[in-house]
Every structure is written in structure tokens, then in C-alpha cells.
Write a structure and sequence with these properties.
Blueprint (H helix, E strand, L loop, with lengths): L3 H139 L26 H4 L6 H39 L1
Amino acid sequence: MTRCLPTFFLASAGQAALKAYDKVSKVSAERERYRTDRDSYRTKWRTSEQQIKDTEAEVERLEKELADAKAAAAKAETKKLKEEEREKLRQADAKGYEAGIKRATLEYTQVAHKMVNDELEVRLPDFFKLGYAAGADAMAGVMIIQPESGFLRQFPKPIIPDLELPYTEKECAPLPLEEDEGEDMAEASEVEKPADGEKEDRATEAEGQQEVAATENL
């Protein structure tokens, strides 16, 4: 009986030692797992921080690109508006220039019409008389009559028909003044009025001096 006791205690101590070893092994394994998880979490944390920094940098880059795109769009829109405004001004200038050319052409045309009418009014009767005389001379030549015989003097004087001018009075009438020209002429007339008044004053003064001189002579 006494011999079995040490064996029992040894077996119990061995089992206790095995249990303690297993517990220590489990604790060590758990600690190692915790350490590994901690390192993994740290790595993930660092990675996430880097990703956040990269994302923030990407956001800044995109915001800068967006601002640049907006500025470029605004600049392009401003340039387009300026070009449209410049084109409108160019078209307005072209229309005004074309209208001025048309008006000048019409004015010159009407002046030319009047010159033609005036020239015909002066010259056409003479041309008619010359033609009449030439016809009379030709008739005398055919009839073998000497111009000195007085035969040609027996012809009646030529009757000049009513002259039909090629252009009407409306086609020769001057164009109505434009607003700017009318204002300029009105201003010019207002400026000339005092000059006319000065002339009248001078004439009155001269008449007064003449009357005084005549009175003194008497």
C-alpha cells in the first residue's frame, strides 16, 4: 500500500504538469495569435491611412481639374460672346456701309438724270433747228436751187415740239436729308443767324452815318 502512494502522486503530478503545460501552450498560442492580429491590424491601419491620403490627394487633383475645366469653359464662353458681339458689329458696319453706298449711288444717279435733262432742254432745240436746216439744204440741193436765191428763206420757221425729257422730276429730285444732316444744317443756320444780324446792324449804322454826314453838309 505504501509503495503505491508515490506512484499515485507521481501520476497526479505528471497529469497536473501536463495540464499546466497545455494551458501554458494555449496561452502562448493565444498570445501569439493576439500579437499576429495586432500586427495585422496595424498593417491594415497603416494601409487604410495611406489609402485615405491617396484618396484625399485624388480628390484635390479632381477638384483642381474641375476648377480648371470650369475656368476654361468660362473663358471659352466669354471668347464666344466677344466673337458674336464682334460679328454683330461687323455686320452692322457692313450694313451701314452698304446703305451709304446705295444712298450715294442714288444721289449721283439723280444728279446725272438732272444734268441730262438740263442739257437736253438747252441743246435739243438747237439740234432740231440744225436738222431742219440740213433737211432744207438737202432739198435745195436735190431741186438744184442755189441757197442764195432766197428760196430757203421762204420756208417757215421750224416749230419745235414739246420736249419729252427722259427722266421725270421725281427721278431728278434730291434725296431727303438724313437725321444727322438735318441737325447739322439746323445748327449751321443757327450759327449763321447772328452773322446776318451783325450785317443788318452794320448796314443800319452805315445809313445813320450817311444821314449825319448829309445833315452836316446842309
